[in-house]
Every structure is written in structure tokens, then in C-alpha cells.
Design a protein that fits this description.
This protein is mainly alpha-helical. It is about 65% helix and about 0% strand. It contains 26 helices and no strands. It has helices spanning about 5-35, 45-95, 100-140, 140-145, 170-190, 210-215, 215-240, 245-260, 265-290, 310-325, 330-350, 365-385, 395-400, 410-420, 425-430, 435-455, 465-480, 485-490, 490-495, 505-510, 545-550, 555-565, 570-580, 585-590, 615-625, 635-660. The chain is elongated. The termini are far apart.
Length: about 675
């Protein structure tokens, strides 16, 4: 195993030219900033103070630049050096045949992953040491112009010593320079607390599979963490100055992401994004807790900085959907979102079990993540696809269905904000194909109503259920105003799940009518509604209104009775079904909490095309129809009976009009 430090040393030597360039850039930047910041404080500040500030800044800046610029090159060089030296060692010292190259390459990659952090820190230390000496040379004249260091036994002048003079160094500026040194000290403490990453222990890196499996989970988390750090560095650099980030940096990151095997199959992609979501959510929760605990240090840390990691993760998802060579981008996005849903539910369930311990689930990080995905996807949809397609919104809708309020009650308010978001609901209902979008949103609206149903039946509208109920009414009013066709087409399934006592909610839905229809003036003299032209056209209903009758074996007898008034016993049998005296329907006996559990579709990257969401909606609609009221009447069956009878009468009226005119008009039944 002496080959490992040799390969590491050679790889470090290969990246030293890049380190020298980085050190020169960092030193030049630091020297200019230090001269500018301390130019007005030469008489009140010692040369030691300026020197320490310059050292802190140049060390941190050089180490960060070296980490971003050399890490990928260092990883490649370590792996290549190990591969070459292992093959030479096998040929020289082994009497057996050379193992397959793939086996050796896999072992090299495992050892490289275990020691890449050490190599990266060694490069950072080398760069920082060189930068410190070089910045001292650049600032030597500036040091000489500063005040001489105070005599031994006395302290330097403190801020405010000259009675608030403008020549005193600003405390805020000194805290900035001190923060660079604090970060370096924290890094050194971490290195001292982790002796397994010292050069003497590199040779002990395991090749055996058992030891590798024991460290597999920890290694995965470490690899994801380092990859996220690099992506976050790119995002932060672009946020500060878009000219710093080049296409080459994005290309290198994408190449590294693929080389590490995170998109080889759906399982590896889900593993990466599950760990990444967990890390980012934990980071955001810690930032929120610090702010709530009174440890926030300023406005710059309060707003967006709490969610920096979450924002970067959302951007990474859309970046990969854009630029990965994958024919099924929708399936790729669904794979990413599935891992986010898994982590959300795991976090929700684990913290819900710890209510007494003061640990509560925080819905803000996951809400922020989904909202950012919506924004980035909207920009991508507009720029690339140039059409109102809903293909990329359907995976989001299925993710929202998976974390519906019945499944994750603590996420209910964030969930409602997401499904009613301006970049989701309108685009889903206006997109093409329109029927698929409306059916998909119907599923989400049924999720919301199914969660509220038990509370509405029991008249429990106290806070927070009352707030959620009022939000639902407002959502229905928006739909009534902007999308009345949606409510009119789906009123059958929506009213089936709303309790009869919720008159206001039901009236909002039932008052919707298509915008192409003009309602008659009710004060018109001699108005006969049945003679209006619109009464002769059957309404468009998106769901299968005949299904409740068909499931009970009543559809054919009903058609026969309406046409021939036979059999005579049919009305009695129908009344018994309505009162629930015969076999109860499966819909009546099913609970809302069990709805749509069997309608999940499989997502595989580059695999089989996904099933349309309308199939899941159709199955879900059957189970969501829980319309038996307190008196034992099956309201779902009654609604189906009324609609089917009315449609039959419309068809009959059309046939009678056809007989009078001599034309041929189909019944449309």
C-alpha cells in the first residue's frame, strides 16, 4: 500500500502550476483590498494587525480557489497514477495473471474517494503557505508605513480610543478579516480531530469488499457533500459576479457528476438526491433555528442566506434535466423528485414521533425547494420548449400527490401553497393536452377535500383547520372566476366528496358554467327553461358518471326501465340500493386515507415510458367517492342516477326532434 502516498504526491506535483497561478491572483486581490481598507488608518493601526488581516484573507481566498480549480484534476491524476502503478506492481511481483482492468479501476476509484479529501487539503495548505509569503512581499512597503508594533506587555489600541475619531479602524471591517481566520482555525481543528486522514494512515486504505461495505454509507454521504460544496461554490460565484463563472466550470462539474456514476441508473440518482436533500434541509433548519434562538448576526443572514443550500439543490435538479444526455427528461425529473418526496416523508414521520421532545417538522425548506424547482422549470419550459406543455409539471403533480395532507399533515399549508402556485395551477389547466392537465389537478383537489372531509362532517373548523378551510374556499373562488369550465366538468367527483352540510362550498362548484354559455334572464316573461337551446345539449362531464350504477349492476336495468318501463320491480330495487339495504358499494366502505395508494406509476431513467396521470385519476376517483350521508342514503348513487336519467332524457328529446324534422341525430348516450 506504499503506492498510495506515492501516487498522491505525484498528483499534487502535477497541480502545482495551477496552484501558483491561483496564489498570484489571490495575493494581488488581497493586497489591493488591504491597501484600500487600511489606507486611512496608518497612524492608528500596527503593522502586525494589518499583516494578520492580510494573512487571514489570502489564506482563505487561496484555499477556496484551489479547492474549486484543482479538485477534479487532482482526482483524475490520483486515479490514473494508482492504476498505472498497480498494473506495474502486478506485472513485476505477482506470479498470477493480471486481474481484469475493471476490477483494478474500481479499487483505484474507491481508494481515490477515500483519500481525495486529504489530497485536496494538502493542496490548499501548499497554496495558502505560498500565498502568505507572496502577499508579505507585495505589502512590505505598506507594512513599513504603518505604526510600529506596540511594546511588549502592552495591548494594541482598541476601537473608539480616540473619542470616535474617523481614523479608528471600523469594527465591522475587522470582524470580516477575523472571520477568515476563524474558518481556517475550524478547518485545522477538524483535521486534528480526524486522525484517519493523516498521511501515515493512507496506506491502510482498505481494498477488501467487507470493509468497503462498512464504510459505504459514510462514503456516499461524503461524496455527495463534496459534490454539493463544489456546486454551491459555483452558484455563489455566479450570484456575486456572473463574469467569474464560465461555461467550462459548468461543463467540468457535469463531467464529474457523470464520472462518479450518479446517473448510471435511477437508483444511483435517487440515492444522490435523497442524501443531498437531507444535507440541504438540515443546513437550512440549523440556520432557521439560530435565527429563532436570537443568534442571527444581521439582515444579510436572515432572508435568502438560510436557504442557500436548498436554492442550489433546486437549481442543480433543473440544470441536470437541461444538460444531461437523456431522452426521457420527464422521467429524469420524476426520479429526482421521488427522492425528495422520500426524504420529506421520512423527515416528517420521524419528527412527528418526537412531538414531546420539542422537535417539530419544519415545512419551510421543502416548500422553498419545490417553489424554486417551479421557477427554474418555468424558465426552462419557456426558453427551450417554447410551448405550454405540461409534461414537466406532471411529475411535480405526482410528487405533490405523494405528500398530500392525508399523508403528511404537517406539510398541509405548504402543500396548498404549492398546488395553487401561479406557476403550477394555471399552467397545468391551460397546458396541452388540456384533459390531462385538468384530470391531474382534479386529483390534487380531491386530495385536499378528502383531508378536510372528516373535519367538515364533524363541524370542526377551529384553527388551523378553519384556516385551511377558508383557503380552500378562496381556491375554489379563483377556479370559479378563471377556470369555470374545470369546475363544471368535474363537479360530479368534487361534490361527491364534499359533505352535504357544506352548502357554501358545494354552491361555489355548482354555480360554475362554461363561459361560452349565456344564462337567460330569469325575469323574462313566459320563460320555459326546458325549451332553451342549451337544454338540448348534454353537458360535458370529465369523469365516468355511470360507474356507480355499473358497479352495482343497475345501469342496464335503468336503461331498460327508462325505455320500456320494465321490469316493474326495478324502482323498489333501486330504492333499496340507495338506502344501502343491499350490498354496500366498495366506495362507501373505503376510507379517504386509503385513496390512490395503488395508483403510483413507476419511473425509470431512460426506461419504459411513464403511464399517463389520467389512469391514476380514474382509479382515485372511484375510491374518493365516499358519499353516504348520516341518514344512510348513498349520495354518489343518487347523483349518478340523476345525471344518467337527465342525459337519457336529452337524448330522447333529440330523437323526438329528429323525427319531426326528418333528420338523423345521434343520441350521444
Amino acid at each position: 500500500m506504499a503506492l498510495v502516498p506515492i501516487a498522491l504526491n505525484e498528483a499534487i506535483r502535477d497541480v502545482l502550476p495551477v496552484v501558483e497561478k491561483i496564489a498570484r491572483v489571490a495575493c494581488s486581490t488581497t493586497a489591493r483590498l488591504v491597501e484600500k481598507d487600511f489606507a486611512d488608518y496608518k497612524e492608528t493601526t500596527s503593522s502586525n494587525t494589518v499583516r494578520n488581516a492580510a494573512h487571514n484573507m489570502v489564506s482563505r481566498l487561496t484555499a477556496s480557489l484551489a479547492h474549486v480549480s484543482t479538485r477534479e484534476h487532482l482526482r483524475v491524476r490520483i486515479s490514473q497514477n494508482l492504476l498505472t502503478k498497480l498494473e506495474e506492481a502486478f506485472r513485476t511481483f505477482s506470479a498470477h495473471a493480471l486481474p481484469p482492468r475493471g476490477v483494478i479501476l474500481q479499487a483505484c476509484e474507491a481508494v481515490c474517494a477515500d483519500n481525495l479529501e486529504l489530497g485536496s487539503r494538502l493542496v490548499e495548505n501548499i497554496a495558502a503557505e505560498r500565498a502568505v509569503h507572496e502577499v508579505d512581499a507585495m505589502l512590505s512597503g505598506f507594512y513599513n508605513d504603518m505604526q510600529s508594533p506596540p511594546p511588549r506587555g502592552s495591548s494594541e489600541r482598541k476601537d473608539g480610543q480616540h473619542g470616535g475619531s474617523s481614523s479608528t479602524v471600523a469594527p465591522a471591517m475587522m470582524r470580516v478579516y477575523a472571520s477568515f481566520g476563524q474558518r481556517d482555525d475550524e478547518t485545522k481543528r477538524q483535521k486534528r480531530s480526524n486522525p484517519m486522514q493523516s498521511p501515515s494512515n493512507i496506506a491502510a486504505s482498505p481494498f477488501h469488499r467487507k470493509e468497503h461495505k462498512l464504510r459505504h454509507n459514510q462514503g456516499l454521504k461524503y461524496r455527495v457533500h463534496r459534490l454539493l460544496d463544489d456546486w454551491l461554490s459555483i452558484c455563489l460565484l455566479e450570484a456575486k459576479s456572473s463574469t467569474i463563472v464560465t461555461e467550462e466550470m459548468y461543463r467540468q462539474f457535469l463531467h464529474r457528476f457523470k464520472d462518479e456514476g450518479w446517473v448510471e441508473n435511477s437508483q444511483s440518482a435517487q440515492t444522490f438526491f435523497f442524501i443531498a436533500t437531507e444535507l440541504c434541509v438540515e443546513s437550512s433548519c440549523r440556520s432557521i433555528d439560530r435565527k429563532v434562538g436570537g443568534h442571527d448576526e444581521g439582515k444579510e443572514n436572515s432572508a435568502g442566506s438560510k436557504y442557500t443550500a436548498v436554492d442550489a439543490l433546486a437549481r442543480l435538479m433543473v440544470f441536470l434535466v437541461k444538460f444531461l444526455d437523456c431522452d426521457d427528461r420527464v422521467g429524469l425529473l420524476a426520479t429526482f423528485l421521488q427522492s425528495v418526496v422520500h426524504q420529506l416523508l421520512q423527515d416528517h414521520d420521524s419528527k412527528s414521533k418526537q412531538k414531546g421532545s420539542g422537535v417539530a417538522y419544519n415545512q419551510k425548506p421543502h416548500l422553498r425547494l419545490f417553489v424554486n424547482v417551479l421557477h427554474d422549470l418555468d424558465a426552462f419550459n419557456t426558453a427551450q420548449l417554447n410551448s405550454p406543455s405540461i409534461d414537466l409539471l406532471v411529475p411535480l403533480a405526482e410528487a405533490f400527490h405523494a405528500v398530500r395532507p392525508e399523508r403528511a399533515p404537517a406539510f398541509a399549508f405548504a402543500w396548498m401553497e404549492l398546488v395553487s402556485h401561479r406557476l403550477f395551477m394555471p399552467k397545468l389547466l391551460l397546458g396541452k393536452p388540456s384533459r390531462r392537465g385538468s384530470s391531474t389537478f382534479e386529483l390534487l383537489l380531491l386530495d385536499l377535500l378528502a383531508f378536510l372531509r372528516p373535519y367538515l362532517i364533524n363541524q370542526e373548523k377551529q384553527h388551523p383547520i378553519g384556516v385551511l378551510y377558508m383557503g380552500t374556499l378562496r381556491l375554489l373562488l379563483v377556479l370559479l372566476h378563471d377556470f369555470p369550465e374545470f369546475l363544471s366538468q368535474h363537479h360530479f367527483s368534487l361534490c361527491n366528496i364534499i359533505p352535504l352540510t357544506c352548502v357554501q362550498m358545494r354552491n361555489i362548484i355548482l354555480s360554475a358554467f362554461p363561459r361560452m354559455i349565456s344564462l337567460p334572464d330569469p325575469l323574462t316573461p313566459h320563460l320555459r327553461v326546458e325549451n332553451l337551446p342549451d337544454m338540448r345539449r348534454p353537458p360535458h362531464i370529465a369523469c365516468d358518471m355511470k360507474e356507480p350504477l355499473l358497479r352495482r349492476g343497475l345501469l342496464k336495468p335503468l336503461k331498460s326501465y327508462l325505455g320500456t318501463r320494465w321490469p316493474i320491480s326495478f324502482p323498489k330495487k333501486l330504492c333499496e340500493q340507495i338506502r344501502g339495504k343491499l350490498q354496500p358499494s366498495s366506495a362507501s366502505s373505503s376510507s379517504p386515507s386509503a385513496a390512490l395508494e395503488d395508483s403510483k406509476s413507476t419511473r425509470i431513467v431512460g426506461g419504459v415510458k411513464r403511464r399517463a396521470a389520467s389512469t391514476a385519476v380514474g382509479e382515485g376517483r372511484k375510491e374518493r367517492s365516499v358519499g353516504v350521508n348520516s341518514d344512510g342514503y348513498d349520495m354518489v348513487l343518487i347523483n349518478s342516477l340523476v345525471l344518467c336519467t337527465g342525459m337519457h332524457h336529452i337524448a330522447r328529446m333529440a330523437l323526438e326532434a329528429d323525427d319531426k324534422s326528418g333528420g338523423v341525430i345521434g343520441p350521444g348516450d
